[in-house]
Amino acid sequence: MKGEPTTTSTVLEEESTRPVIIPWGSILALFYTVITLGLLLRFVFQLLSIYNIWVKSEKQVISGIPVHQLKKDITPFSFFSLIFIHAEKHSETELSQILLHEQSDADIS
Predict the structure, then answer these.
(1) What is the pLDDT along the chain (109 residues), one digit of tens a residue?
(2) Which of 16, 28, 64, 98 is the most interior residue, by most CB within 10 Å?
(3) Overall pTM surpassing 0.85 (yes/no)
């Protein structure tokens, strides 16, 4: 063995290509969370807008119906048992029809 040439063999390992694993569960959870937070922020912003309108309105009774008189020209609407209206913009006939409609929406007896 002495004097014999030594041979070194190199083993070339083939690079194995691994499939890319996409974490679909994490991506969907992130997507769901982002959309949920966006909708929640929108909901809170809308509630704050209604609160702001409520604070700036003046409570009155029109035709025996309690309403919140708006200072700005905003379309009449109801929110739960609250009716918001800009009465100066409407004639008596329109006002009567609007109050009847909003009263049914607000479920005020």
Answers:
(1) 565 555 554 444 556 788 889 999 999 999 999 999 999 999 999 999 999 999 999 999 988 889 999 988 888 998 888 899 988 888 888 888 888 888 887 766 5
(2) 98
(3) no
β-strands 82-85, 58-62: how paired?
unpaired
Sheet holding 58-62, edge to edge: 58-62, 65-69, 82-85, 77-79
Q: How far apart are CA 51 and CA 55, in angstroms?
A: 6
| Residues 56/71, Cβ–Cβ less than 8 Å | yes
User: Residues 68, 82: contact at Cβ < 8 Å?
Assistant: yes
CB 82 within 8 A of CB 58: no
The answer to whether residues 63 and 100 touch, using CB atoms and an 8 Å cutoff, is no
Length of the chain: 109
